[in-house]
Amino acid sequence: MRKSFLMVVLGVVYAFGGDLSWAKNYDEAKKQALSQGKLVMVVLTQEGCDMCEYMKSVVFKNPDVMMVVESRFVPVEIDISKGKAPFKAYGTPTIYFANGKGEKVGRQIVGAAKPEVFTETIKKIQR
């Protein structure tokens, strides 16, 4: 009951213009993941990437995506053209999942996806 109430509240917040709570950097994301019992969602992007912009402006703004991400992950964006990434980019966006120790969990996602497909894919990521 308590969990379903929280999901309804989060859904209402996201439906009215909420935004994901992005960690400032990878180290902060790992610390938050450890303390909150979540995984880190590492989004590798670069300037000029149309699919990265689609993910940021459409997919990560979708209420269903936001609800799943906020409940299970600590998201962090790393622009590979501005700094060193903890994982290899196979193109952008490339999305990895890691535990609070920085160990990869599951498979990476390469490229963009529609919100419904992305939601179903990240629901399958195991802790």
Task: Describe it.
The structure is a single chain. By secondary structure, the protein is an alpha+beta fold. Helix 1 crosses helix 4. The longest helix has 14 residues. About 9% of the residues have low confidence.
Number of strands: 4
| Mean pLDDT figure | 89
Strands of the biggest beta sheet: in what spatial order? Answer: 2-1-3-4
Low-confidence stretches: 5-16
CA radius of gyration is 14 Å
Order of helices and strands: HHEHHEEEH
Number of helices: 5
Q: End-to-end distance, in Å? A: 23 Å
Largest sheet properties = 4 strands, mixed
The chain-level structural class is alpha+beta
Silhouette: globular
SSE arrangement:
Blueprint: H1 2-15, H2 26-36, E1 39-45, H3 50-57, H4 63-72, E2 73-79, E3 94-98, E4 109-110, H5 115-123
Features:
17% strand, 4-stranded mixed sheet, globular, 41% helix, 5 helices, 127 residues, alpha+beta
